[in-house]
Amino acid sequence: MSKRTHISATVNGDPVEFLTAPSTTLLDALRDELQLTGAKEGCGSGDCGACSVMLDGRLVCSCLVLAVEAEGRRVETIEGMAEGGQLHPLQQKFLEHAALQCGFCTPGLLVAAKALLDANPDPTETEARYWLAGNLCRCTGYDKIIRAVMDAAADLRQAQRVIA
Amino acid sequence: MAQLDYVAPTTTDEAIKALGGGSARVLAGGTDLLVQMRAGRVKPERIVDLKRIPGLIGVRQETGGFVIGAATPGAVIAEHAALVRAWPGVVEAINLIGSTQVQGRASLAGNLCNASPAADSVPAIIAARAIAVVVGGKGRREVPVDAIAVAPGRTSLAADEFVLEIRLPPRPARSSDAYLRSIPRTEMDIAVVGAGVSLTLDAAGVVTAAHVALGAVAPTALLVAEAGAAIIGSRLDEAALERLDAAARAACRPISDKRGTADYRIKIAGVLARRAAQIAHRRASEA
Predict the structure, then answer these.
(1) In which band, very low, low, confident or very high, does the pLDDT at B171 lie, cut at 50, 70 and 90?
(2) Which of B161, B150, B88, B85 is nearest to B116 (CA)?
(3) pLDDT digits (tens, 9 = 90+) for A109-164
(4) Chain A contact for B92 (CB, 8 A cutoff)
């Protein structure tokens, strides 16, 4: 048994502390130590994107991050996306467009799509498809996902205009 | 995994000490190392995370050139506007590596030191005549990036050495570069062939300097001096492009595998070298 290290980090805005072995991935620590089971393990090799989270503001695969690397870092997961009982517009649009079937890829796709819209509020469909190329979905054929993302982007731009 | 020790030094000296003795591996973005550990292909006893050393993440301009910290991820490199202007080929090559998620972690020095013959960034930085600054127990040395990989998965670095930064040289006026790769799909794949070209033009549009590098056609990425020489003194007319194409093909020593046959790779290497040279020429004309 490897020795365990004490890690302090910020997850979805809250300070968290946990113990982890040096070889444990951030994904396993989120799921097993912090009970945040939204991020999923699909491939474990960075190909499928089901474990997508934000690490210090960058979209990453949490299966390719060691939990010990999170010391002092800021992590955002799908669990932080809805505010209170209010779904994020992307989550709402995924429901309206039925942009999921089994749902396994959905948390990763939502985290990745939010990162896209935060960086680029007005992406072309091609930009959205390339940005999300690292998130595999074996059910939908992607069309509904792209429609949901483009629709959410339009709504978010409209909301920005209203605020402005 | 059995006993594994993780250290995150904050100075290069501490990192060098941590790498000495026992089997240790350097961690930058982890997008190769963690996959290899999981597959059991590497079994380090210690991981030395370089990312807490000041300067290891970031791009800075120095004496006319650019210095890219060894652990700088592709996403950070792509956001550096001056670097994108000066070295569009280097940046487009780095940004072809993996997905958005991988770009958030994967580093330039990691792509170099993973020593894959098909690494996308490597032909581009070889054509750029980039220098890797290597530090270790015996001190600091500057190594042309084409001398880092010696075989698939093997580098010329000693056990206690690591790449601290990659330096791109100052850019004369009317210089630019380009990188192209061939893959069977449009995204998220490994190069069947890659070609990087960097060149400089005079005021009349004549090529005065040119470097050509090829990936995935030999055990390591190749600097093809004959291919660069083939277009110097030309305006990249058809005769010059034919010489470039022939020189690129002549340098190839590829294998046949599921991604492509040796004959296919040789032919495509010539085609990509031509097209990359034309893109670099157009960019340099507009620079």
Answers:
(1) very high
(2) B150
(3) 999 999 999 999 999 999 999 999 999 999 999 999 999 999 999 999 999 888 87
(4) no
| Average per-residue pLDDT for chain B | 96
A51: tokens are 């474990």
Best of A64, A69, A135 to substitute, by most chain B Cβ atoms within 10 angstroms, is A64
Please say if the pLDDT value at position B22 is more than 80. no
Interface contacts (A, B; CB < 8 Å): 89
Whole-structure pTM value: 0.96
With vertex at residue A106, the alpha carbon angle to CA A102 and CA A107, rounded to the nearest 5 degrees, is 130
Does residue B10 sit at the A interface (CB-CB below 8 Å)? no
Complex confidence, ipTM: 0.96
Nearest CA in chain B to A131: B100
Which residues in chain B are closer than 8 Å to A64, comparing Cβ atoms? 29-31, 34-35, 101-102, 105
Please name the helix (run of DSSP H) or strand (run of DSSP E) that holds residue A152, with its range, or none: helix A143-163
Q: What is the mean pLDDT of residues B245-252?
A: 98
DSSP helix/strand/coil, A16: strand
| Residues in chain B closer than 8 A to A115 (CB atoms) | 100
For residue A164, give how far its alpha carbon lies from the nearest alpha carbon of chain B (Å). Answer: 27
Cβ pair B104:A69 closer than 8 A: no
- What would the two tokens of residue A89 be? 């517009």
Q: Cβ separation of B101 and A59 shorter than 8 Å?
A: yes
| Residues of chain B positioned with their CB less than 8 A from the CB of A29 | none
d(Cα A66, Cα A23) in Å, to the nearest integer?
Answer: 7
User: From start to end of A62-117, where are the E strands?
Assistant: 74-76
Tell me the C-alpha to C-alpha distance, in Å, between residue B9 and each of A120, B30, B49, B285. 35, 16, 7, 45
If you write DSSP's letter for every residue of B54-110 in order, what string do you get? Answer: TTSS-EEEETTEEEEETT-BHHHHHT-HHHHHH-HHHHHHHTTSS-HHHHTT-BHHH
Long-range contacts of A101-105 (CB under 8 A, 24+ apart): A101/A139, A101/A140, A102/A138, A102/A139, A104/A40, A104/A42, A104/A50, A105/A40, A105/A42, A105/A48, A105/A49, A105/A50, A105/A135, A105/A136, A105/A137, A105/A138, A105/A139
- B183 DSSP 8-state letter: -
Beta strand pairing call for B149-151 and B154-155: antiparallel
Residue B108 tokens read as: 């330039």
